[in-house]
Structures are given as structure tokens and as C-alpha cells.
Amino acid sequence: MKAYGTKVSFAKGRLIRFPDFTLQYVGERRVTSTQYPRGFLYRDFIVAAASERITLSWTSGTGDIGPTLFRVSGKEFGLELVHSDLLGWLKPNELVITIKQPAASEGTRR
Questions:
Q1: Is residue 2, in this structure, part of any structural domain at all?
Q2: 73 inside domain
Q3: Is residue 3 part of a domain?
Q4: Has residue 1 been placed in a domain?
Q5: How many domains are contained in the chain?
Q6: Which backbone phi and psi does 107 adopt, to 5 degrees?
Q7: At 105, is the pLDDT very low, low, confident or very high (cuts 50, 70, 90)?
Q8: 108-to-74, 99, 103, 104, 105 alpha-carbon distances in Å
Q9: Pairing of strands 8-9, 75-81
């Protein structure tokens, strides 16, 4: 079982277990358009938990290397590739999953 907020190695087809879900890297694909013929490279993952199954796609797009956010099991997470906000630069086969903490409710703010 892998911990959130740590560097985790991934490979195509390998199942990675986290406390709330499993993650599997399914590969990469290039998507082109007339506006950007060079295209964007997407890395695709499958996230599964109980009866939920979603496909998650990460891309740096035009250079914004931020996390891709997703919801599963009623919680919000972030998938980071290339660069982690907390851990810095990542190797090509490394990722970081972060769990997003809910914002403080209006009733508890001072």
C-alpha cells in the first residue's frame, strides 16, 4: 500500500494500491489539433474504488505542470507528474498522489 504525498514509481499495466483506491497506468497518447499541430501528450490512468472506475488523463498542455484533480470515494485527490508542489521534480516514471483536505466550514472560522 502506497502513502499519499510520497514519490511512487509507476509502469504501464502495474496496479498501485493507495488507501482509498487503486491506480493503473495505461499509457500515453498524443492529441493534435489545427490550432496546435504539434499536439499534447496525455498520460492516462485508471482509478478504481469499489464500484467506481474513472479514466484520468494528465498533460502539461502548454506548460502548466499542475496536479490533475479527481474525486473518488467521496474525496478529492491530485495526481502530480513531472513536478510535485511539495517534493520538487519527479523522474519520468514517478508520480505523487495528494489528498485534498476539505476547507474549514463557515461555522468554524473566526
A1: no
A2: yes
A3: no
A4: no
A5: 1
A6: -70, -20
A7: low
A8: 22, 21, 10, 7, 6
A9: unpaired
Residues 71, 6, 56, CA angle at the centre, nearest 5°?
A: 30
Q: Which cell goes with 89?
A: 521534480
What residue has cell string 467506481? 52
Q: What is the pLDDT of residue 22?
A: 97
Do residues 75 and 56 make contact, with C-beta atoms less than 8 angstroms apart? no
- Per the structure, the complete domain to which residue 100 belongs is given by 8-108
pLDDT band at 106 (very low <50, low <70, confident <90, very high): very low
**Closest among 44, 48, 86 to 66, alpha carbons compared:** 86
CA neighbor of 98 nearest in space, from 24, 89, 81: 81
Each residue of 64-98: pLDDT tens digit?
Answer: 688 999 999 899 999 999 999 999 999 999 999 99
Integer Cα distance of 69 and 58 in angstroms: 9
Q: Which three cell numbers stand for residue 92?
A: 519520468
